[in-house]
Structures are given as structure tokens and as C-alpha cells.
Amino acid sequence: MRLVLVGPPGAGKGTQAAFIADKLGIPHISTGDIFRANVNQQTPLGLEAKQYMDAGQLVPDEVTNAMVADRLAQSDVAGGFLLDGYPRNLGQAGVLADSLDVAETPLDAVVEILVDTEHVVGRLLSRGQGRSDDTEEVIRHRLGIYASETAPLVSYYRERGLLRSVDGVGSVDDVSARVLAVLTA
Ligand code: AMP
Questions:
Q1: Closest C-alpha residue for ligand 1 atom 19
Q2: Which long-range CB contacts under 8 A does 36-43 form with residues at least 24 apart?
Q3: Is 178 a catalytic residue?
Q4: Are 100 and 107 in contact (CB under 8 A)?
Q5: How confident is the model at residue 129, as a pLDDT?
Q6: For the chain, which domains are there?
Q7: Is the pTM of this model over 0.85?
Q8: Residue of 59, 96, 153 to test ligand 1 pocket, by largest number of atoms within 8 Å of CB
Q9: Which of 10, 51, 70, 140 is in Cβ range 3.0-4.6 Å of 120 for a Cys bridge?
């Protein structure tokens, strides 16, 4: 299956993505994780991305799209993939759709994890992973970017008949079960 997971920061996307990818036997591709690995290794990509990440802004599309295109060209995605954190705006969604169309491998579904914003701020502040972009100010900024840039993807994918929305409030197991249910329905 070729899947995209969408939801605000702190919706539990990463946890769900890892679970579902494992369950379906497909690679979990998190653009945030790839960026963080590059920041840690101080690669040129990491040095460029860090300034945006620390400010809670999106890394420019040219950089992000090229990174994802590289990842999707690797052989382990031939049987499907789960994208977590990408696309993040309509421009990225268009680039992804074009490249998947060319390869005749369109998306099967887009799972939206629904949680309200106040819930999310509390979750992120208590996450305690020491991420440099988990301060309250940056979290609020990331949520603002989500609302303005990423939320329009929901209508975009709904219009294309791909959207499956899932209530993201509850235990990890409950939410996972809901996600698997919408994917197998
Ligand atoms: P995440 O782990 O998905 O919350 O991503 C952490 C940060 O990485 C984001 O706040 C952005 O700065 C950057 N990032 C991750 N994915 C993307 C993307 N698709 N487009 C632009 N920036 C991204």
C-alpha cells in the first residue's frame, strides 16, 4: 500500500506511522526523522534544514521534494510506503502526485489523525524528548503553519476520494485499531 499520514504536530502521527508501517510491512518514511538525522550528522542538508526546523518553519519545498524523490527512488519502496510528515503543503502534494502518476503508482489512501489543538500543545510539551522545536512558542508556530499550509491537504485528498479520517484521541492501541480499520474497510 502507498499511504500518507496527515495530522497536526503532536497528533501521535510518528507512533501510529511506525506501527502501521510495521504491520503492513512497508517502509515508514518520516521527513522529520530524515531531517533530524541529517542535522545530527551535520550534513549540508542538515545544516540548511536546521534553521527552519528550529524556528518551526517548513524547510523549502525544493529541498524537501528532492529529498523525498531520492528516498522514493530506493528499491525498498517498490512494495509500498507510508509517508509521515510529507506532503506538508499543496505544492508538495502536487509534486508527489505528479511523480507517482509518472510511475503509475498512485496513492491508495491518506489517513488523517484528528485531534484538537489544545490537546496537542499539552502532549507536545509533556513529550519530553528534548527536541529543540518543542518549546511552547515554536509549537504554537508549528500549529499555525499546520493550519495555514497543511490543513488544506485534507480537502485536496477528500476531493480525490483518498481521505480516511480517524479520531486520534485515546490510547495508542485504540487509535492504531481505528487506522487499520479504515485501511481495510
Ligand atoms: P516533524 O518531525 O514531522 O514534526 O518535522 C519536524 C520539522 O522538520 C518541521 O517542523 C519542519 O521544519 C521540517 N519538515 C518535516 N517535514 C517537512 C516537509 N514535508 N516540508 C517542509 N519541512 C518539513
A1: 86
A2: none
A3: no
A4: yes
A5: 60
A6: 2-29+81-184 (3.40.50.300)
A7: yes
A8: 59
A9: 10
- Indicate whether residue 12 lines ligand 1 (CB < 6 A): no
The owner of cell 502534494 is 93
13 classed as catalytic: yes
Q: How do residues 109-152 score in pLDDT, each as one tens digit?
A: 999 999 987 777 877 777 656 677 778 888 888 899 999 999 99
> Cell 502507498 sits at which residue?
2
- How far is it, in rounded angstroms, from Cα 155 to Cα 150? 10
133 is written with which cell numbers?
522545536
Is there a contact between 54 and 134 (Cβ–Cβ < 8 Å)? no
**Spatial CB neighbours of 51, under 8 Å, sequence gap ≥ 6:** none
pLDDT the model gives residue 9: 87
**How many angstroms separate the alpha carbon of residue 185 from the centre of ligand 1?**
30
Each residue's pLDDT tens digit, 99-110: 999 999 999 999
**pLDDT score recorded for residue 11:** 86
- For 74-96, what is the mean pLDDT? 97
User: Which grid coordinates are listed for 156?
Assistant: 485536496
What's the grid cell of residue 14? 510518528
142 lines ligand 1 (CB under 6 A): yes
CA of 172 to the centre of ligand 1 (A): 22
Using DSSP, state whether 114 is helix, strand or coil.
strand
Ligand 1 atom at minimal distance to the Cα of residue 60: 21
